[in-house]
Design a protein that fits this description.
InterPro entries: L-xylulose/Carbonyl_redctase (IPR051737), NAD(P)-bd_dom_sf (IPR036291), Sc_DH/Rdtase_CS (IPR020904), SDR_fam (IPR002347). GO terms for molecular function: carbonyl reductase (NADPH) activity; L-xylulose reductase (NADPH) activity. By secondary structure, the protein is α/β, with parallel strands linked by helices. It has a single domain, classed as NAD(P)-binding Rossmann-like Domain (Rossmann fold), CATH 3.40.50.720. It has 9 helices and 7 strands; from the N terminus they run H-E-H-E-H-E-H-E-H-E-H-E-H-H-H-E. 43% of the residues are buried.
Length: 255
């Protein structure tokens, strides 16, 4: 490709989300941080949500189009803060967690914690965003961060799989219900991603080898791999894409 064409591609990529307002939850670290930076680089004004002020300050310092919002997405009052936003075009519904436990050892506290954050909070956040987009009447894009475990099962992940299968179902239902308003709803389903949350797992060589053995492409995903898919689904380039789940999994679920 010529230098001229490369420049045109770069300009086009840089303007994918120009003029749009994006809200990214769980933006302090890992996938959320990468999504906030990628959306800002693609031209969006980004509202980055996390609980830790220091993480958000570092993120805001990394790009001038990122505005921090210190908040707990699981708090009862958080949906009202979304409804109060002057403008909202994109939601990256990323906040979530995981705890690895064999099925017989799953305790009620873990069950409740994952259901509360991964399902209840994810639903209420996306509901509030959808309501705000409907009020504004200019369409929008909601991208749920799901997982390959929303498509398959895995050991020590019974509760996590359950929550991510719920997100996949929510994606389809919201897409159908909101399509007539021009609001697209999709999911990104990554394989195991190397993030601060998963870093303790990767300290175990056996776990790293296990992770690599499940991915035909032979490498562990990085947050930026997920962020690129998110930007595509959030952008007008995916204007007729809704109700789908884009698996960023190196072929893991194709086996």
């Amino acid at each position: 490709m010529s230098d001229l064409n490369l420049s045109s591609v770069a300009r086009s990529r840089g303007e994918q989300l120009a003029g749009l307002i994006a809200l990214v939850t769980g933006a302090g670290r890992g996938i959320g941080r990468a999504c906030a930076l990628a959306c800002a680089a693609a031209g969006a004004e980004v509202i980055a949500v996390a609980r830790t002020e220091a993480d958000l300050a570092a993120l805001a310092a990394a790009h001038p189009r990122i505005r921090p919002m210190i908040a707990d997405v699981a708090a009862d009052e958080f949906p009202a803060r979304i409804r109060a936003l002057p403008h909202l075009d994109i939601l990256i519904n990323n906040a979530g967690t995981n705890r690895l436990q064999p099925l017989p050892e799953v305790d009620v506290a873990t069950l409740d914690h994952l259901l509360h954050l991964n399902v209840r909070s994810a639903f209420l956040v996306s509901q509030a965003a959808a309501l705000r987009m409907l009020e504004l009447g200019r369409g929008g894009s909601i991208v749920h961060i799901s997982s390959q475990m929303g498509h398959v099962g895995g050991p020590k992940r019974a509760v996590y799989c359950m929550t991510k299968h719920a997100i996949e179902g929510l994606t389809k239902a919201m897409a159908v219900e909101l399509a007539s308003a021009g609001i697209r709803v999709n999911a990104v389903a990554p394989t195991i991603v190397e993030t601060p949350m998963t870093a303790p797992f990767f300290e175990d060589p056996a776990y790293r080898q296990f992770a690599l053995s499940t991915i035909p492409m032979g490498r562990v995903a990085q947050p930026e791999d997920v962020a690129e898919a998110v930007v595509y689904l959030a952008s007008p380039a995916a204007g007729l894409v809704t109700g789908t789940s884009l698996r960023v999994d190196g072929g893991a679920t194709a086996q």
